[in-house]
């Protein structure tokens, strides 16, 4: 805020205070020529009269005290733009002190889990509860309260990991985020295989989730394989298993983060996708990131979290 605006705010505040004080003074006493209190000409039921008397002195003095308090408050705490008060108090400093105190309490709570491995945290019920709480407050907005994701947001409750499901890979995802880009291939494929090229690729990609299926009688899938081998194989591999180092998904598992309909797959191939997992290192700090990563890792590793693999797997089975 510029100094000009500071003076404008100061002048506005002073004008309001002086205006209130003047109005109070002007209306607080009677003057020569004023009608008597009972001469208002307002009567009800013949004997009920409206009077016009000044407010009691104690009430008026209370208003003056309030005005003086307001002036003192502005002088002490500030309130005239960015001009500081004589106490040098600021809401930003107050917030910083409160945050530092809260951070100290959190640090004490999370200290026992500093630098612990994800499997060790996943086997600790208290640590797991803390991780679940952090997930609910931070991650559930995108991945859902049950961690089963939504269209465009990966399911964290299954065993499919685009960037790797090892403990350190999961932790890196939480700490530093991921940036997954599927390029636009519509123009390239159309130039290579004609106007139906994308449909050919979709036909072939769908066969990847059905091992052993012959392409001999499927003209579209056979044409799609030729196009796939020329464009898609660089990221998704010859066998369609993907590449976790670059976040290229496995196309053989029948899991489609953006939907499995023909329209959705057409949109993905023609116009690409750009999925971003934000980095949480600054927001959570490493210890809290470890706790939430341990909780997420435990969802697909129930044995490591002390649960029954069969039971936990059934509970975590995603809706495809």
From TrEMBL:
Swiss-Prot/TrEMBL keywords: Cell inner membrane, Cell membrane, Electron transport, Heme, Hydrogen ion transport, Ion transport, Iron, Membrane, Metal-binding, Oxidoreductase, Repeat, Respiratory chain, Transmembrane, Transmembrane helix, Transport
InterPro entries: CcoP_N (IPR032858), CcoP_N_sf (IPR038414), Cyt_c-like_dom (IPR009056), Cyt_c-like_dom_sf (IPR036909), Cyt_c_oxidase_cbb3_su3 (IPR004678), Cytochrome_c_Oxidase_Subunit (IPR050597)
TM regions (residue ranges): 6-26, 58-77
Involved pathway(s): Energy metabolism; oxidative phosphorylation
Domain called Cytochrome c: residue spans: 126-209, 219-300
Coiled coil feature spans: none
Cofactor note: Binds 2 heme C groups per subunit.
Cofactor: heme c
PROSITE patterns: CYTC
Pfam families given in the database record: Cytochrome_CBB3 (PF13442), FixP_N (PF14715)
Source species, domain of life: Bacteria
Localization in the cell: Cell inner membrane
Broad class of where this protein is predominantly found: membrane
Similarity comment: family membership: Belongs to the CcoP / FixP family.
Assembly notes: Component of the cbb3-type cytochrome c oxidase.
UniProt function note: C-type cytochrome. Part of the cbb3-type cytochrome c oxidase complex.
Name recorded for this polypeptide: Cbb3-type cytochrome c oxidase subunit
Taxonomic source organism: Lysobacter zhanggongensis
Gene name in the database record: ccoP
């Amino acid at each position: 805020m510029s100094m000009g605006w500071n003076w404008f705010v100061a002048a506005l505040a002073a004008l309001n205070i002086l205006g209130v004080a003047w109005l109070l003074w002007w209306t607080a006493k009677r003057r020569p020529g004023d009608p008597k209190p009972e001469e208002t000409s307002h009567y009800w039921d013949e004997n009920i009269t409206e009077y016009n008397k000044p407010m009691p002195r104690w009430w008026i003095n209370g208003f003056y005290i309030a005005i003086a308090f307001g002036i003192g408050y502005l002088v002490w705490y500030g309130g005239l733009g960015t001009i500081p008060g004589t106490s040098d108090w600021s809401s930003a400093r107050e917030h910083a002190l409160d945050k530092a105190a809260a951070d100290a309490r959190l640090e004490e709570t999370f200290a026992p889990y500093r630098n612990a491995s994800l499997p060790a945290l996943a086997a600790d019920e208290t640590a797991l509860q803390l991780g679940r709480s952090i997930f609910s407050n931070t991650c559930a907005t995108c991945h859902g309260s049950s961690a089963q994701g939504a269209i465009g947001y990966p399911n964290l409750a299954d065993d499919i990991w685009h960037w790797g499901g090892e403990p350190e890979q999961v932790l890196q995802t939480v700490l530093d985020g991921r940036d997954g880009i599927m390029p636009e291939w519509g123009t390239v494929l159309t130039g290579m295989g004609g106007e139906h090229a994308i449909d050919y690729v979709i036909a072939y990609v769908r066969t990847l989730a059905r091992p052993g299926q012959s392409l001999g009688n499927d003209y579209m899938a056979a044409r799609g394989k030729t196009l796939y081998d020329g464009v898609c194989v660089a990221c998704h591999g010859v066998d369609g298993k993907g590449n976790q180092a670059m976040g290229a998904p496995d196309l053989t598992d029948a899991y489609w983060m953006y939907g499995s309909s023909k329209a959705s797959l057409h949109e993905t191939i023609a116009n690409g996708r750009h999925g971003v997992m934000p980095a949480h290192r600054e927001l959570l700090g490493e210890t809290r990131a470890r706790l939430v990563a341990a909780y997420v890792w435990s969802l697909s590793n129930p044995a490591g979290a002390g649960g029954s693999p069969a039971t936990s797997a059934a509970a975590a089975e995603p809706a495809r």
